[in-house]
């Protein structure tokens, strides 16, 4: 079995956005209860550290960081109709960003082969100067920027399979050739971005890849995208580290979207991503929790991914059974970005 660092803490439940808010403390509590009863060799528990202000500022404006910090003085502060802070939200958000960094450090330092950062609140919607979509600081983007700045990496790949487009992550690296951002998401859907034509700009042209898909796509469509598009591009990019924005809200049970992915689908996506990491960067891969709002679906899907992360990458990958409905989207994506990756 591979060694997987599991980074989490019950302190992530301290952020409170409202009694009826879908991004609720019960999400992390259910996840931790699952891990406490999961019998998997090679699972190594780590407590997260808080990110420093300097680390957060790799992706966020200092004035914005200070604004989030000031919410410690309020029982409730509304950034927008969906994104609410309480007195503990700032520290919890710092701990979420730090949790992903803790996971990355564990993999880089050889304490684990890969890692899963079960953090909260999520991050991929957070913009440099704005909270939105339940997110305050962009946890995965901060980790990617940290790898580039502090560990000298030149090629970091982010695979975002959350059902919502990670507009914040995209914006932060839109002109960067050092971070390849690939997103599969329901479209049109919140936040409205992530079209096929958003491919990066300047030196980063071709390094942003969006695969927008209509509602009701499931395992076969997602796996066709991975097999026929994401993996070929990833092999051309040859990442030195792979980060996953692991949202589980494209599950068929999720109340905030209309996709049809199952636990088997998440396991299969994780196997493909893990295999890519094994081929390109000695398996260096960290998954970080993003969305997922049905507790049963969230727990079962995360369990499947954690189990898969422990298996060696030489296990067979079974091709998608069909998924032909997604091929016109893949073909259009090829036309938009294939020339940057020498893909026919």
Summing up helix and strand content along with how strands pair, one would put the structural category as alpha/beta
- The low-confidence runs, each spanning 5 or more residues with pLDDT under 50, are none
| Helix proportion range | 25-40%
> What is the CATH class designation?
Alpha Beta
Order of helical and strand elements: EHEHHEEHEHEHEEHEHEHH
**Strand arrangement, major sheet:** 2-1-5-10-9-6-7-8
Query: Number of DSSP strands?
Result: 10
CATH topology: Arginase, Chain A
The number of domains is 1
CATH architecture: 3-Layer(aba) Sandwich
Determine the strand fraction and express it as a percent band: 5-15%
What radius of gyration results from the CA coordinates?
Answer: 18 Å
Q: Could you say which overall geometry the principal axes of the C-alpha atoms support?
A: globular
Tell me the number of helical segments per DSSP (H or I, 4 or more residues long): 10
Mean pLDDT: 97
**CATH superfamily placement:** Histone deacetylase domain
Describe the largest sheet.
8 strands, parallel
The end-to-end distance, rounded to whole angstroms, is 37 Å
